[in-house]
Amino acid sequence: MRNILASISILILLLFASCEKEEGLYKKPDVSAGTITKSVEMGDKYESQVFFDFRTGESRSNKFKDWDIAFSYSDENKIIINNAKSGEFSICNLGKKSFSDVIDVSKIEESEWQNDNPTGRIDSSAIGRIFQKKTGNFFTTDSNMYLIKLGDDKLFDKQYVKIRFLYRNGLIYQSEWTYLDQTRAMALPVQTDENQNFAYYCFECKSHPKMEPFEKDEWDIVFTSYKEYIYESSFGIWVYYPLRGVLSNPHLTKVANLTNIVNYDDIDLNYAETLVFNDDINNIGYNWKNYSIAASKYTINSKNAFVIKNRDGTFYKMKMVDYYNAKDDPGYPKFAYELLK
Amino acid sequence: MPDGSKPTFKLPITAKFLNTGGNICSETNDSGYFEISGVGPIHIVVDPGLDSIDVHEQSFGASQSKINIRLFSHDQELDPITITGTFSRKSISANPYNIRVIGKQKITSMAAQNLSDVLQNESNIQLGQDAVIGTSAIMQGIGGNDIKILLNGIPIIGRIGGNIDVSQIPMNNIERIEIIEGPMSVIYGSDALGGIINIITKDPEGKKLLINANTYIDNLKNYNSNASIQTRLNKNVPLSFSIGRQFFGGKDFDETTRILDWKPKEKIFADFGTMLKFKDITLRLGSNFFTEKLTDRSDAENNLITWYGYNSIYNTYRWDNQMQLNFKFNNYNKFQLQNALNLYSRRKMTIKRDLVSGEETTFRPQDQDTTNFTLFNSRGVYLYKAPSRKLDLNLGFDFTHEAGSGKRIPVTNPGITDFAAFATFDFHPNSQWDIQPSLRIVNNSRYGSSVIKNYGGSISGYAPLVPSLQVKYKMSKHLIFRASYSKGYRAPSIKELFFNFVDIQHNVHGNEDLSPETSDNFIVSMDYRHRLNQKSYTNFNFSIFNNNIRNKITLGLQDALTNYYTYVNIGRFRSQGLNVKFGFKSERMNFSFSSTLISVVDEVPQEDSILQQNYLNGQVAFNVKRTFPKFKTALNVITRYTSPTFGYNEDLTRYRIGGFYLVDAIYNGDLFKKRIGYQFGIKNILGITSVNSNRSQSNSAHSNTSNSVLVTPGRLFFLSLNFKLF
């Protein structure tokens, strides 16, 4: 009897032994004939930004940290800051102060430091609408003093810049600025260019770098660093967080984000022509990639899909396919796109 | 003895002459006889010192020259023996703490495979689920680092995210589980702010040969089996071995992705135990080994050339070794020494898999991470029981050294050494009152209110004194009231002190200047137990509690502009609540009901205000067991309800995580004269898998979150067999 029981139990134990099922193999991906793939290099420290033109397939890059502030050519009279340059980079409005006033930065509340909203809308930018039309092409401001925090990676006396925006006359913005501990302001005339969205300035270099390697009619998207206002779930708070993502050209390029809405393979010209586009420049944005704990890296949302309507009114569909190079270094986005016809 | 046979062991006798007040201590001879010289009415106390036989007290008149005393078996079913919170075995009614016992029979009747299965049916314990970190326990609204889980009184180490994964503790060799809510820091040291869960393993029985085998299978791809052998070297040296394996194949609710919602796990465990008895010395040795492999898959990615994905494999190893020495000088003086060496390791490895060809390569070998923890603990307690039986005194020391290292915890960190002395005084002025003040003083290598330099120049300090007071009033044979105040403390963990995670996205640091968390806890309870007849009893327990934790350690953002995070002592945490439990048992029916309601207030100081977040939740558990004596089977139906949980989002809007019901029906019986035991049934009959949540949408740079919270892998049909081979 005991032997029978022993045998049954051993048999049942063996019967119930099991292993992790081997994962089935996938079919090689189908790629339609008109698909073009493109990899760009931001670098594993994300030091570069890369502009891309769908029409020619050409890309050009530069160092995204080479500027601090930029002035728009358009009649929006928008001023933007390069707030992704560091976590601290931000601006606050000090009101009616003079350059000789002593400013105690420790007394400035954290909530007073502002960042540009990545949608690109002027009303949600850090500085906002400050120009009022006087006559013709002449615009004035309320001449408030602003304080820009450039970042702790500099010596203290170079971390803060005081600036006052005076007026715009035609193509030229006139401002004056100096460092926090100085009282004598330097004039800052910035001339915009009809072929560029913005004219840029670097305080430390005291130079006007040309940050758009294409003319504004010649590029569609840029892979760059910028700040998003996000809920950091790990720590339970909302913060402006520097991210790597894709912004579109504010001049004439429109993007529709169809992630999780429609299958990339199902997008055709008929569908694209029914879409309604808005003016936000961050519709591609950053969250086509998610950090996967399982992978210990960013993985691409396989359902990401975008439609781009460029300056000619031509439609392209696009999807992100990778964020790493062959050596598994991040900062090398790869995407696929196809002309819709 | 109740059966009329004479005892053959020496029983300690204490006799007090009621006219003169004189005391005489004696003991019975091997035939159970004793003699006392003297005249006058006498009060006699017989204390067998055995779990199975109650202490007997009886008074006799002066005219009686011959006295017969009958001893009765202890009611282990209604009033089981406990050891948690005391250093000697005491029944629940004798334990000054409001303690809960989950016995082996109840564990078996739930078809519980691990500690998580058991705790899920306890109304005053909530479980938190994480697909990778595992299952954590929450008591009195307090969880994480503040709940201490012990194995035979020794802490289990290896916290991930501050939690011990209770699903990693198999139930194959467990005798019972003892739970005490509220701080137990006086006796068990740090990390016991919310309470303790003490898992008591089976002692080897000393049989010549006993072999048991168990197997379990269900439709959710759980395949478990284990076997145990009990034997002996000789009459005084019993041995026990057990080995087991639990396998879970994973569960996926969304087959359009490669990610599994419940990750596949394989667990292997082995235990060894022995006991040596020599005169008045008992030595217990035990070793428990556990390993778990968990596989976490990423979603599939298509780079237009191939499909690929990543698998993170977590290998956990735990090896706990214990030695317990009990030395009985005489009936009034004992000494216990307990030493433990616990080793824990968790290794994460990421594999990149080509999903078209099946080829696998190690992804970023430089990023692979192994976390190691080692704990050495030595605790000695001197127990004194006054002959008058009015005082029990326990004096003890507790030495712990914990070391740990990992990818983000530098291996050069010095670890934490903690040396404490404690004392408990248990006064019994009469048979009704029991007053137990206790005190612990701690010398810790990392923190203290007064810092002194030790010999050799190292810095150490004294933590705040840790007092507690337990008061028990036995109103009648059946009714007991308890009130307690306990101070608790939790020392900062190695991670909170030494963590260092800096990269392009993160700037998180440990804080070596952290202070311990401290708490004040009050509990008032009423416990009623009444045996109605030989086969039926009823019990009722009601308790209310209040916890107030200060200097709570949380990860705080110190500078939003640099994303600098570190651990800080900020904020206050309060929880209040009540528990109700009612049970009734007869020959054929066993019925129990329990309910808990908890209110939690979390206060975090802001710059010029206090951000207060309130949470309310409750649980109800209802259990009915119907026995069929004719067929020797029983049907057990277990239901429990967890109420919706409320709280506040970051923008101060209220969120709600939905409530849910779980219902199990389990049928069990025996065959072939109990050689084979069987169980089958359905767990989670309602098929609850997740609940809705409208907690703040996360637009995190790191991950997307969903609007639901996982609860269980789904409805489960199972079969379990147990074989007694010898």
Model description:
The complex is a heterodimer of chains A (341) and B (726). Chain A has 341 residues and is mostly beta strands. Helix content of chain A is 6%, strand content 37%. Chain A has 2 helices and 21 strands. In chain A, the strands form 5 sheets. In chain A, strands 6, 7, 8, 9, 10, 11 and 12 form a 7-stranded antiparallel sheet that branches. Chain A has a 5-stranded antiparallel sheet with strand order 1-21-20-19-16, with no helix packed on it. In chain A, strand 11 and strand 12 form a beta hairpin. Chain B is mainly beta and 726 residues long. Chain B is 3% helix and 58% strand. Chain B contains 4 helices and 48 strands. In chain B, the strands form 8 sheets. Chain B has a 22-stranded antiparallel beta barrel. In chain B, a hairpin with a 7-residue loop joins strand 5 and strand 6. The two termini of chain B are 31 Å apart.
Short characterization:
Chain A has helices spanning 2-16, 269-272, and strands at 36-39, 48-52, 59-63, 69-72, 79-81, 90-95, 132-135, 138-140, 145-149, 160-169, 172-179, 186-191, 198-201, 221-232, 237-248, 254-257, 289-292, 297-300, 306-309, 315-324, 330-339. With 341 residues, chain A is mostly beta strands.
